[in-house]
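Hi! If you just cloned this repository, the fastest way to understand the data is to look at a raw example. We've pasted two of them here, unedited. The first protein comes first, obviously.
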Amino acid sequence: MIQTSNKILSLEEFLALPETKPYCEYIDGKIIPKPMPQGKHSTIQGELCPTINSVVKVQKMGWAFPELRCTFGGRSIVPDVAVFSWARLPVDENGDIANTFAAVPDWIIEILSPEQSHTKVTKKILHALNHGTQMGWLIDPDERFIAAYPAKQQPLPFEENESVLPVPEFCQGLQLTVGDIFGWLKVTM
């Protein structure tokens, strides 16, 4: 979804374009390509979804999706991880998971890549919170820092390995620490 002219596309026109890799997002009338994930980003994302789903999906509390297009509030974004509560999962007429998610995730997780703007990623989380997201996480692998953004509260900083990270209400029973997240990056021989 690369914009080739100076013409501004509407959200509907953007959504009609074919998908590309890397994915593009539609934010404030602009088409913005997402940076390609690198090793640390991919590792955390690859471990996070099955870890969340091993508790949340198994107990039918919710479902975590990697790189899922979510369209809401005049934007179309592709969070690194989008988690939807079970009650809000979009389904098609057959009761299968829908292909199109025209809804805000209940929990949005972004993993900062080295060339990504901290401000732009934070703005994406704040936009989701302003449209009903219950929780946002911003994970910075290089700084070994996680900011949690509970809805209608101040962001919470986490750096200590033993710190237990907050999760949305519908994910109770899921417990992750800073050490769990960044421990996935260690290569043991």
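Ok, and the second one:
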Amino acid sequence: MRVELEIWRQDGPRARGRFESYTVEDAEPEMSLLELLDRLNDQIIADGGEPVVFESDCREGVCGMCGFLVNGKPHGPQDNTPACRQHLRAFPGVTRFRLEPWRSAAFPVIRDLVVDRTALDELIRAGGTVDVAAGTAPDADSVPQPYLQAEQALDFAACIGCGACVAACPNGAAMLFAGAKLAHLSLMPQGRHERSRRARRMARTVNEIFGPCSLYGECVPACPAGIPLTAIAALNREVLRAGLRGRSRDD
């Protein structure tokens, strides 16, 4: 099948970007979007050109490395599906794709379809970790946790940090990402003593780096992990809880 591609090309963070048009004549319905880019890059290299730069690692939808806008939608037309799992057979009749990097002030373009997602790392550094005395191996089972609570924590922990929620949000908010982290950690028995400090630090950082949340909800269908909108409510709840408990000296 013949597929036409319009791809954003940008030589560097300070370079001026532009769209360039390409055609892949031998695309197959079983190809994923990343495999389509692989085929295109083979053509470009054979012609002596510079291949399109994009990120990927596992190509199984769990690493969060891949991600770009496809016809204006993060990752592609299918909801809750990363770019590496979006196959051409899933949208028959579509033979023209416009590919561009995440469009958010928090994610500056490095080159072509690759963006700098350090802003998400800043959120994790602000408080998305816990202090745990690991002890010996038997100690791992010494802190009981209800089954349903553990399962709920795992649901929020499924976030792969791809940044699609930020790219989908008209305001460039990262509340779904931050909320998933806070909801996950608040349900765990470990790290309870730093719960309030974590909420205050992450909330402050998300407000400093990202845009405000207006509950548009575009982030939810864009999320490959299917993180629910209740994660945002969890963030607000954790911040309110921290406020009621008062400020700590090490905040």
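That's it. A detail worth noticing about the second one: The chain has eight helices and seven strands.
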